[in-house]
Amino acid sequence: MDEIKQHYLYPAALFAEGTPHVVSTILGSCVAVCLFDPKTNKGGINHYMLPLWNGQGLASPKYGNIAIERLIERMLALGCSKSNLQAKVFGGGEVIETNISNFQIGDRNIKIAIEMLQEHKIPIVAKSVGGKLGRKIEFITHTGEVRQKYIQKQLI
Amino acid sequence: MPDQLTDDELIHELKRRFELNKKSLKELKELNAELKVVNKKLEESEALKTHFISNITNEIINPFTSIIGLSKAILSVDKENWKKVISMVALIHSEAFNLDFQLRNIFVAAKIEAGDIYPEILRVDVKNLLESIIESFKFEMRKKKLNIQFTIDSDIEGEQAYIFKTDPEKLKLIIANLMSNAVNFSFEGGMVEIEAIRKGRTLSVIVRDHGIGISKENQKIIFDRFKRVDSGINSLNRGHGLGLSINKAIIDMLNGKIAIESELGKGACFTISIPESEEPIEGFASDANEMFFDSESEVF
Asked: B19 in contact with A at a CB cutoff of 8 Å?
């Protein structure tokens, strides 16, 4: 049996390949959306840091509205059907204490995921979001399974 | 007759609803402000399409046209005039160099926007790297009779003084973009200064020119892709253009910073600071401060 390839997902990047991978990433206020198609057994994942691209600079998947659209596009390019896609959402913790009530990046990152997945009619079948801790997750792309551990560390 | 609320209960409920309304109104105002910003960006994006064509013409089509024209001219040079060929080849090199450079920028921008770009950390001799970038701009600087001053300093002594863990290809592109702007916006006969300082686990590189400079107003928009300081179609110099927005994205990826000091007519000074990367373990940084809760993973 072939060993499953490992991939570390950096912030502002996304990953969707046809072959099985274990993709790991670390989340603080960032959010990762994992998409999986149980018909083709293919999965993809993004990792974004801020909810909305405001038109400034490059339109990179650092921003949630770009990252989610791009990930869906990549899944479709792999031969998945949008009607089969399922989502799992992770992250969006407030790991940095702040008194500024509307500086809730984690919350806003979570909201954009939920809203956009709803717009695309992609069901969220699991989620672990919010709270005060960071997370390390490992996404097994060909089964859709996600393993999560909480971490206590200053993450941005 | 249903139970009536007491006065206190009524006041409390009204107060609660008022607070809720107040919060909703505040959120609505914030969303509206964000919407205005994005709408303005959309308008600019439409205008950008015409600039895109202009940029492509300036950055790619014109150099190709020059290269084709010059190489055709070389084919028709008779043997007695071979000295002319040298200057024509120099011009071809110049156009090809700029073309190669801009295409690298475009390909990197495409990778950034696709989310397909990652730091590839190596132990880099940054002195060597900077010298090779400067060397690659030698012909461009000679064309404008520019002088260059390069200094590098480190607070580490010995053979490890300039060995720095970072992504060499991306650092190269960052510096090349700053060099390109410094050369393009310098007046003929001017000076370009490059100063590198390795201090602890941070590398700073300063690229300074004494040319056209950037107004305070334009400094705010300079990192927008395809934005140029002089939007005129017939501007003499190539704009800061795509390079600086790529620089910002790459520097963000390397967890660094970029700063501008400039005034119109007094040149520009760009400073980048990049922290040294951790040695990757299983593909990501790990240190002793990390505390995992539970030995078992939760499975979703």
From this structure: no
